[in-house]
Amino acid sequence: MNKQVELKGKRIIASKHVKLGQKNRKGQTYTDINDIFYKAEQTPNFLTGSEVIKEAIRRASVGTSVAYPITPQSEAAALIGELYAEDYLDEYFRGESEFAVMGQCAGSSFGGHRVFTTTAGPGTLRAMENFPMWAGSRLPIQVCVTCRGINSPLSIQPDTLEMHYLLETGMLVWHAETAQDLYDFILKGFIVAEQPDVHVPIAVCCDGFFVTHTKDTVNLSPEDLCLTPYNPYESPVTCMDMEIAPYRMMRDPFVMKSNYINYSTHASWQQEIKAAVERSRKHTIVLLNGLIDEENSDREILIVTSGTAVSQSREAIRLLEEEGIKVGLVKIKTIRPFPYEEIKRATKHAKHIFVPEFNVAGWMAREIKSTIRDNERVYCGPHVAGGMTMPSEVIVEEVKTHLGIKTAQNSR
Amino acid sequence: MSHYEVKAGPEAFLPPAAATMGNVLPDPGEAHIGGKIVPEEEAYEYAARKILGAKVPTIFPGPLVLWKWNDHVAAKATAIRELANEVPMRLIPMADYRPKYPKIDAAVEINPNHPNLTIWHNKIDVCIFIGVHCHQANLALKMIRASTSCYTMAMCAMAGHEDACLSFRDADLEKIQRLTAAVKKLKAEGVEVQANSFTQFQMDRSGFVVEPVN
After folding, report:
1. Residue A110 with chain B: CB contacts under 8 Å
2. Is residue B157 part of a domain?
3. Is B203 domain-assigned?
4. Cα-Cα-Cα-Cα dihedral of A160, A165, A166, A169, to 10°?
5. How far is residue B153's CA from residue B164's CA, in Å, rounded to a whole number?
6. Do B20 and A235 lie within an 8 Å CB cutoff?
7. Which residues of A touch B99 (CB under 8 A)?
């Protein structure tokens, strides 16, 4: 790294949008993100995660939202329809499928709108072809992924396997632990994704049902403040027609003219998308107050995870502490970009690292194992999947068993 | 703190994007030289010395300054022309980003899909990108670093380019003029222009009005 990104007192570069300070047709004032989160008073509200998504979008100056409502996983798409009826959005319509929705989102984003949609589980996979297309076309669309099981038979409960599929799409992938995270990440996610040096899509993920359907106290910014609109003139690519990249590339891709130079262009293009994801670190660190949160990370036993597995781990840590076992916690907020350096540093002193996950694959543990030295320290688990809950007692049991401490369960 | 140094190539069959090597873009008021973050002021003189020391210093103006989108752009284009005349530097446009088939005319244009062809053809040893969309500039900068020995600079109107050997950010009219002023100052101090003599080509819709002469 050529320069350390400082956190103390730093703010993301303030918006210079021409509409800054003006009012929209709903009487909301276009406001810089720094002022929305750090100056304005935040008021507690008791809301479901789906309602939180609605409230974030109310303040997000979204131009278009395309819906394939998949209730009961999340009511968010339907609730955003209510916002459209209240005139907060310019365009809102239903696609024929998740694949169609994501294509329509691309068209709207190419046209210069800020675009938001939601999906989950099988819908994410059905839409999958579009995500690298969004990234390759540098479209800063936001999709809220309310994670659920992806396989047959159907599950509407949380399972984070679909996030694994998103990791190499070229999108930013953030993982909210709580409804508060979800609110913050949606609003801040637009700002990071739309930075001219970033300008790639973002998936704001949360664990479906647990976050979307349960009520929690969430601090909301004032309803009369909204983000400054997306500025398509800050796009790192041209506006599109049939003769100009990137659309020309889709119609007449350079790889069809097979020679070294053309493949090299495509390779350079892929590198540029990865580079854009890397550039988001600088902006994300200041807006999210770091890519990870740490609690007692100097301890010899650590739990490192993301999403609601963090919440369950907190309670497990409390239970372990009652028995004199001290455990630290590292909460990962961004999966792409992955906080390699932060995790290396935070796990430096740990002898045992547990990675509880809501999926059968253990992809997060693999990410961590590939990041740190002496990765035999990483214990991949506990895992639950298919919509199972992860009781804190299960984490406690797993930690104690691994440490060779007898429990009623492991001594049977 | 170690960092990935962004140097003139040829570097590799497929060099990495500097951002993936941990290089961070400069903040407002800063620039980078070789990946090292420096005060912007320092970069003007460094860039001016590079330009004056080159045999074939060339500006690649992109679509953002080639068409009069607004009055500010017209003023920037005039300032770019003044910079080119002051050194003097060649002007070879990157007019759009289409792959050029069957063959690019490397003497008079550059393209982000095969920028090395223009560098090789004209033996360009120092270049400046101005007014090229960031995505296409980064594609081209990496490919130039891969297979040519050209020293690349970027006068970027947005956040800058890690893949250039030197990059300014937020490059508006004033910053282009400050680079010209830095060139003038060095010349006044006795730094001699090393550029080969040439005739800048001029074209209209019917073809050459003035042909390029090296």
Report:
1. none
2. yes
3. no
4. 170
5. 5
6. no
7. 248, 252, 254, 257, 262, 265
Number of domains in chain B: 1
Check: CB of residue A300 under 8 Å from CB of residue A352: yes
> Which chain B residues have a beta carbon less than 8 Å from that of A139?
none
The more confidently predicted of residues A389 and B58 is B58
Nearest CB partner across the interface for A262, out of B18, B37, B113: B113
**Shortest Cα distance, chain A CAs vs residue B103, angstroms:** 12
Backbone angles phi, psi at A322, to 5 degrees: -60, -25
Which residues partner with A205 through β-bridges? A145, A175
Q: Which residue of B has its CA nearest to A238?
A: B133
- Model pLDDT, residue B113: 85
Q: Between B134-147 and A260-287, two packed helices, what is the crossing angle to 10 degrees?
A: 120
Nearest CA in chain A to B36: A2
- Name the closest residue on chain B to residue A6, using Cα atoms: B27
- Cβ-Cβ contacts under 8 Å for A275 (sequence gap 6 or more): B17, B18, B19, B20, B138, B162, B163
Contact criterion met (CB < 8 Å) for B159 and A197: yes
Instruction: Give this complex's ipTM.
Output: 0.95
Q: Is B23 part of any domain? A: no
Output the pLDDT for position B2: 59
- Distance between A312 CA and the closest CA of chain B, angstroms: 33
**Which residue in chain A has the smallest CA separation from B161?**
A197
Give the DSSP H/E element, type plus range, for residue A9: none
Average pLDDT by stretches of 10, chain A with 412 residues: 68 91 98 96 96 98 90 80 97 94 94 95 93 95 94 86 97 98 98 98 95 95 98 87 58 55 82 97 95 97 98 98 97 98 96 97 97 96 91 96 86 72
**For residue A325, which of A386, A260, A268, A402 has the smallest C-alpha distance?**
A402
Q: Which amino acid is at A79?
A: L
Cβ distance B117 to A272 less than 8 Å, yes or no, reads no
Sorted by where each starts, the structural domains of chain A and their CATH numbers stand as 29-234 (3.40.50.970), 292-403 (3.40.50.920)
Per the DSSP assignment, residues forming a β-bridge with B129 are B60, B154
Q: Which domain holds residue B130?
A: 89-196
- Token couple for A281: 């670190």
Distance from CA of A15 to the nearest CA of B (A): 13
Distance of residue A280 Cα from the nearest chain B Cα, in angstroms = 10
**Residue with token string 């319509």:** A93
Other residues' Cβ atoms within 10 Å of the Cβ of residue B211? 12
Question: In B34-94, at which residue ranges do the beta strands (DSSP E only) sit?
Answer: 36-39, 57-61, 90-91
Which residues from chain B sit within 8 angstroms of residue A262, using beta carbons? 99, 113-114
Nearest-CA distance A387 → chain B (Å)? 36
What pairing do the DSSP bridges indicate for beta strands A43-48 and A215-220? antiparallel
Q: Determine contact, residues B62/B133, Cβ cutoff 8 Å.
A: yes
